[in-house]
Amino acid sequence: MRWIILPLNVIFAIIIVFFERKEPTETIAWLVVLFLLPPVGFVLYLLLGQNYTRQRMFVVKEREDRSFLQEIFAEQQRTFVGDNYRCTSPEVERFNKTVSLLLQNSQAYLTGGNRVGVFTRGEDKFEALFAAIGEARHHIHMEYFIINNDDLGRAVVHALAEKARQGVEVRLLIDTMGSLRGGGSRAAFRELTDAGGKIGEFFPSIYRVNYRNHRKIAVIDGVAGFIGGFNIGNDYLGDGPLGYWRDTTLQISGPAAWALQLRFVLDWNYTTGEGLRLNPRYFPSPGAPGRTPVQIASSGPDTRWSPIKEGYISLINSARKSVYIQTPYFIPDESVIDALRIAALSGVDVRIMIPCKPDHIFVYWATLSFIGEILEAGGRAYTYDAGFLHAKTIVVDGEAGSVGSANWDVRSFRLNFEANAFFYDAAVGARLAAAFEADLNVSTEITLEGYRARPLGVRMKESISRLFSPLA
């Protein structure tokens, strides 16, 4: 057996180094796995590592997405990049480099006149979602990484089926691994399909960990949208092994709902081949319900760069006073670490909040190793003690920021399909900053002194986890 495995590992090593052009740290990590764990290294690589399949699968999707969006975004791109764009608010003026970046690398159209609501509790988020579903008159479009077959999941499916029976178009896009691997089944969605609703399964394989649709989006009648970190299931109401669930979702009314609609249409067409077009019924006049400028940015294996990560870095580089980050997983690459370190050394109040209880122990120890670098540079870090922190947020100077599905880790930056809302509004920023500061009351600070005094066993766990973190 060994005489077969060793040549396979050598072949994979050649592919990793010369053909796949991975990041250097990821390349080294995979080489270590292949040659230190020869019995399982090549199996892990087949399941988690190789990019060739991704390139074949998603190069067409990237081309189709850009073609679909190009005409829509071309005019704003020309005016904004040419410095002819008239900024709609002081925040857009201040963060215009981030706006321009996302416009060019994610075709994230800048929309104004949005009303943005902030939900940090599952009860509030799902109450608002059920209300919006109940008010639907023409269509409901939803895509979620996880929809559990439990009380909440069945209630959502039932509500969607009721609207389908009333003649409302209902389309539900799920990630196969996220919704079916954990004990769910296709039968759980039968009520919806029997009622005339449509189900799409993104990347229908439960054995491939990479390239999952991690987005959490809902659009109702083209005028109300939801985007954030909450999946659908009892866990997200705090009824699970991790206890109280602290997350963040935005409800958006206004033109940014169109951008969420576009994101859904692109993903739906790729998954189902239905060929859903830009029917005006899906893009009704949004009016002017608010004043918040918003961009909806997407990233994934079908994007050339890492738009959401680069948007994070651009926000950090624009900070003058503060950077508040909440994330369940903090495994950044060097570019993110450098941006945070430079900000902290420059006197910016950099604060990062992570969970005190891990749902993935390997990722937790790797997270702590990177937290140490932020502390060394003068940043501050906290563990959230009141339950599980799943929010994926950044707020800069209380004026701009981002909320969405993308964690601060390699998986979200490069391997999964993600979507985030970037906002430029001090009112929304103040609400998110206040939520962060309220969470400090139920958090414990990780001090530099305490971090340096951690036991040898903890240091070893961190070092080993960090070595393999590019593969997480």
TrEMBL record:
Single GO BP term: cardiolipin biosynthetic process
GO molecular function terms noted in the UniProt entry: cardiolipin synthase activity
Membrane topology: Multi-pass membrane protein
GO cellular component, one term: plasma membrane
Top-level taxon of origin: Archaea
Keywords: Cell membrane, Lipid biosynthesis, Lipid metabolism, Membrane, Phospholipid biosynthesis, Phospholipid metabolism, Repeat, Transferase, Transmembrane, Transmembrane helix
Listed Gene3D superfamilies: Endonuclease Chain A
Regions crossing the membrane: 5-21, 27-48
Primary location class: membrane
InterPro entries per UniProt: Cardiolipin_synth_Firmi, Cardiolipin_synthase, CLS_N, PLD-like_dom, PLipase_D/transphosphatidylase
Identification of the protein by name: Cardiolipin synthase
Provenance organism: Methanoculleus receptaculi
